[in-house]
Amino acid sequence: MKIMKFGGTSVGKPERMHQVAQLITKDVSEPRIVVLSALSGTTNSLVAIGEAMASGNREQAKELIDKLEAHYQSFIKELVKTDKLYAKAKSIVSEHFEFLNIILKISFSEALSKDILAQGELLSTKLFSVYLEEKGIDHMLLPALEFMTIDAQDEPQLSTIKVKLSRILQQNSDKKLFITQGYICRNSRGEVDNLKRGGSDYTASLVAAAANASVCEIWTDIDGMHNNDPRIVKKTLPIEQLSFEEAAELAYFGAKILHPTCIWPAQQQKVPVKLLNTMAPEALGTTITQEAGSVGVKAVAAKDGIITINIKSSRMLLAYGFLRKIFEVFEKYRTSIDMITTSEVAVSVTIDNGGNLMSIVKELEPFGTITVEHDHTIISVVGNEIAQTKDILSKLFDALTPIPVRMVSYGGSKHNVSMLVPSSYKTTTLQLLNKGLFGLE
Ligand code: ASP
Ligand code: MG
Question: Which residues are close to ligand 2, an ion, with C-beta < 5 A?
Fold first, then answer.
């Protein structure tokens, strides 16, 4: 079994959907499960529709629904050619927009907002299926809501997913091509839910693990993970091979191409993940496997919007249990810490979610003097064994001479050195590292 996931831009235009049909029928040596996102822009619109309804602004919600429906109406005109399948596509679009219009009339709830969000992936997969039908490509729609489940903590239940998915696949063992929805799932109350924004990658990885797939291909519109942010530095190179650990660090610290949560299921079942480009299908892309590959720096990534909290206290001197008490405050507010540095009388931590910042600061105040700094960026240098490689460290710090580095996290893992800089220095830092570590301008 092979998993192939296509993101919103890969299905966002009729001609792109046509191309996806070609890509999934090129190599038929193995059965395939194709995971699709919603058409690009759809989930954002559905979020806006939900927000308008939540704030009681039905008129605005109605306007947004109509606008989105018009988009789908013109989409299907170019998607299929025959009258029969156009009529079928039209009735799918009508059905889902009728549903949204019904929701508009009932009183809004959290569960309803999840129903709204699910429409994007339901539409993209059904419309894609209509196109495959027109092309005479034999396939089956696998309803994600029948096998993707999350528990009461919103965590996917891999073992349950495995049992449910295997059963469906066994019952349809004559089929070679399956199409399913990314992102959507059922929660512990049996309601429609989702794996959070960008969650289709997570679906793909979970399905890959559950089906013990030979490979999990993530198709986007860039040729794999790059060594640096192409929006910021002029020259970047795709990375051919990464280990799961390196990929996890990169995904977490800002490489937008892969959702950070999606690494563990594939890693657990040792399913290789390939990042491929729909615009250049022949390009090598990036392969992520268990093996670390070569030693050395592979990439740098940046994560913005970091808040630094400093706790200074002479009571910390020779004290034990001090850090535990501090961490408990963050635990209480379900806020995860990214970086931490300590000295004998102070500790600095960074967070990327300031939702509970005021409460956290208030509860930390009894421990010492608290200061908060905003607008920081974590620059993460990722590669195999880099923390052990002396010349890498000297190159790194040489390159950063002009930068006021605020924190350094080194030695936590063998694959990563992270630095905290004021966000206003992000561009310069990435450029200097591109030159200093990769010899690229
Ligand atoms: N459609 C969802 C989103 O835009 C999931 C995904 O694309 O991965 O967040
Ligand atoms: Mg995506």
Answer: 7, 198
Nearest ligand 1 atom to the CA of 121 is: 1
Alpha-carbon separation of residue 84 from 21, 48, 69, 88, 97 (angstroms): 19, 33, 20, 6, 20
- CA 184–ligand 1 middle distance (angstroms): 9
Q: Give me the pLDDT at residue 254, please.
A: 67
Q: Which residue has the tokens 């399956």?
A: 178
- Least Cα distance to 166 among 211, 212, 209 occurs for 211
Q: pLDDT band for position 317 (50/70/90)? A: low
Ligand 2 geometric centre to CA of 201 (Å): 7
Q: Is residue 231 annotated as involved in ligand binding?
A: yes
The pLDDT tens digits for 270-292 are: 999 999 999 999 999 999 999 87
Cα of 160 vs centre of ligand 1, distance in Å, is 23
Which residue among 6, 43, 44 is best mutated to probe the pocket of ligand 1, counting the most ligand atoms within 8 A of its Cβ?
43
How big, in percent rounded to 5, are the helix, strand and coil portions of the chain? 45, 25, 30
| Ligand 1 atom having least distance to the Cα of 259 | 8
For ligand 1, is residue 197 a contact (CB within 6 Å)? yes
Angle between helices 14-26 and 58-79 (to 10 degrees): 60
Q: How confident is the model at residue 253, as a pLDDT?
A: 74
Percent of the chain past pLDDT 90, that is, above it, reads 83
Residue with structure tokens 């809004």? Answer: 108
User: Which phi and psi (to 5°) does residue 438 adopt?
Assistant: -115, -5
Measured distance CA(67)–CA(283) in Å, rounded: 37
The per-residue pLDDT for range 16-25, each reduced to its tens digit, is 999 999 999 9
| 63-91: average pLDDT | 98
Beta bridge partners of 48: none
- Centre a 10 Å sphere on the Cβ of residue 95 and count the other Cβ atoms it contains: 12
Q: Nearest 5°: CA angle at 41, between 151 and 111?
A: 30
Q: What is the pLDDT of residues 296-306, one digit of tens each?
A: 899 999 999 99
Whether the model pTM is above 0.85:
yes
Domain boundary among 178, 195, 221: 221
How far, in Å, from the CA of 183 to the mean position of ligand 1?
6
Q: What is the CATH number of the domain that holds 365?
A: 3.30.2130.10
The answer as to whether 214 is a domain residue is yes
In a shared domain, residues 216 and 334: no
Q: What share of the chain has pLDDT > 70, as a percent?
A: 98
| Domain count for the chain | 2
